[in-house]
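Instructor's aside before we start: the two examples that follow are unrelated to each other. I chose them only because their records fit on one page, so don't look for a connection. First example below.
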Amino acid sequence: MKASAFVYPWDVVGDPGAPARLAGLGVQQVTLASAYHSTRALTPRHPGHRIVTAEHAAVLYPPDEARWKGRGLRPYEQSWVAGRDPYAEAAGALASAGLQVHSWVVLAHNSRMGAEHPETSVVNAYGDRYPWAPCIARPDVHAYLVDLAAEAAVRPGAYGTELESCGWYGFAHLHAHDKTAGVGLGDAAQYLMSLCFCPDCRAGYATTGLDPDALAAVVRRALEPVWAGPGSGAAGWEGVRALLGADLADATRQWRDQVARGLQEAAVAAVRREAGEGFQVLLHADPASYRTGANAGVDPGRILATADGVVLPCSGGDAAREAVLGPFAEPSARHGGVLAANFSVVGGMGGSPATLARDAAHARDLGATEIRLYHAGLASGPDLDAVREALTASG
């Protein structure tokens, strides 16, 4: 299967040996970040640094001033990688090593936007804002994300793109010095804590016949047993319906699915208009449309009729892989498209590079057509040795 490794421009810029090392893993493609969220990243092989601190969400290229002039929401520029256009510099070096470059675009995940424009953030049923999570129901956020998708995806030399966080973001977030694990939240509580009650979402609930104030009160009451007890272990959509009530749960999902589909369809269309024919557009996705986060919830049939495929989280055991890939089997037979199984290969971050060959073969048997490796820049030398061995063994 075709394999692609995720990398950041700062893994390549300033390191002349990086492209050859990446090509030597046995991958055919790299998925290179062009728009990314804040992070602190280890660079264990770079000759010039060991830590890169990306202080805020930013684009890793110079944004087009004509596109963004006069707009309240616009991309932030980066200052932590040398050069005017680190994406282009890294992409050129990687292409020279024989690697096909695709862009990696993070959309609805931006803490700086939430800090500077608090009105754009998701607001939970208690009135708490999530500054890392732009509310995609807001027209200005929707317009910003669609234009960002088009600009950040279609960079010079890119053959395709992968859109991450192209949907709802919610409660779950890897935050600095996080202190949120005291109560375990299952699927149901995560969903309730991710429901947004900003003015646009309140108006949206009203279109489905819901009273947003009454809904918020029901959500708070439904969560009381979670805060009082050991947490909610309820899983799946039936767990959400049991906690919130079937009619209310289904009505909120109807609204949220509609908003997410609108963003996904508009973003894909905008990228295709910008790029023209032959440019591949994939979405990082989860087959349960009510889930939030980097792998945005989608309807498998709809998304494979919209995009050229999906990138799916496939680390973990066989059952977890089956749960992710299984819902795409029938839609894939109808629509075709890429089903890329994404494996963490960073042992220190929970990845399992030693079992990559076996896990990738299992994903292929379940319908996966490609694999993704997260993340070649972060992985240790032994982790990358295991990746190289797995890709060599699988041909």
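Example two begins here.
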Amino acid sequence: METKHMQIGEVAARTELSLRTIRHYEETGLVIPSARSQGGFRLYTETDVARLMVIRRMKPLGFTLEQMRDLLDATDRLDGDDALDADEREVLLERLRTYRQATAEQVEKLRIQLARAEDFADTLGARLEQNAPAARV
């Protein structure tokens, strides 16, 4: 099966990341384009796009680039062709569980922030209604 390659512009559109951000992730070693065209353009695969989506989801949750690299390394090794012994597999799965727990904690914090923001918006709406001039009949 032939692998479809995409140029950076298509990847940016699909991931909703800027070209600059994608290049930054390349410079930091998080996502390296799978190939280059004859003209030197970066070429990405679906796997590269999936990696960028992991990063895109982790960033707003406060994960560092090093944590992103660590999680991607663990998933790469779990998904890789290399045979892992039971101990290695368990260590990698424990890393995933740690990130899952940290993500759940961040989601809860975001839910609290969202509830507070919604409450504030409702408070402002009520204040506006209280102070709006009476409608003329």
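The first strand starts at residue 6 and ends at 7.
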